[in-house]
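Posted in: Structural Biology > Protein-Ligand Complexes

Title: Requesting predicted complex, adenosine-5'-diphosphate in pocket

I'd be grateful if someone could produce the 3D structure tokens for the following input. Sequence and ligand are given below.
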Amino acid sequence: MEEFKLIEYIKRSFNANLIGDDSAFLNSEQINLISKDILVEDVHFKINNNFFEIGVKSLIANVSDIIASGGIPLYFFLAIGIPAYLNESNLKEFLKGIKKVSKKYNVELAGGDISKSEKFFISVTITGKTILKYPITRSGAKVNDNIFVTGNLGDSEVGLRLILNKLSLHNEKLKNYFVKKHFFQKLYPEFVETLCKKCKINSMIDISDGFLQDLLHILKMSKKSAVIFGKSIPTSNYYKKLKKVLKTDFQRIPLISGEEYQLIFTSPENFETINSIARDFKIKITEVGKIKGNKKEQIKILDMFEKFDNLGYRHFL
Ligand code: ADP
Ligand code: MG
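-- Reply #1 --
Done. Output follows.
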């Protein structure tokens, strides 16, 4: 499709009234959060007739960033580099994926850009506003904060290994479950909104690189360390079925699995207080550790297999 036709198609299919001028006029004094991401073919994803999923992934990551900052996502801008080997129906599928996320989380497409390119690349810029007067940052963790995580960890990495044929499962139902978990994550905007209003949340981050890596971002920015209760790391019932298949990776994967988009947050509140809010939104919450003072060894994991204890994780950072 030729550029202007494609813009026209996007404008129509997204009912995007802000598209068309040199700049988008947002008529808002509310925006105080902006985030940007780039996804490049063969770096962040492989093309395998999965254009809808690539679309979903492109926007989910950005919406998640705004939510993890204690914000409400508002507008997004979509830049796409289109290689010659994409056809019209590929692009339409991709846009359908974007649209699905934009509807679900109520974010409006406000503009973008299109160019030819060697590989498929997508860059989304998203704006939002903070729920409170200030954002929830990575740098606010305090000594004795409890560390909480939403949902289950590990499923996304299993899905990725299945997609890349690094793992095989005979059970189709299981396989589909994990592949889906790699592409379609649930985000929790309403939960975060209530949480920020009712509780003192000192720091928060979404899991894009993996639990340990992202926790480390909080610890580095907050100049703190953490003790993690290894046995408390939450996994799904489906994941638990893989104990024999994954062998020694079974304990490790939930700690390193990326693109989970679950939230890690720290708070002086106890589990009961946080969980009473999470329950209203049917969200699973687990207390996985505690923030400690600044130490050289930033994460100490209790109760893990000996090989992976304390230093083992560094290998994956
Ligand atoms: P300019 O030459 O000023 O950059 P364009 O022709 O690129 O203008 O864009 C015209 C309008 O279409 C602008 O409002 C722009 O934001 C919008 N637009 C272009 N590409 C996209 C895209 N991929 N997604 C959404 N809107 C787009
Ligand atoms: Mg342009």
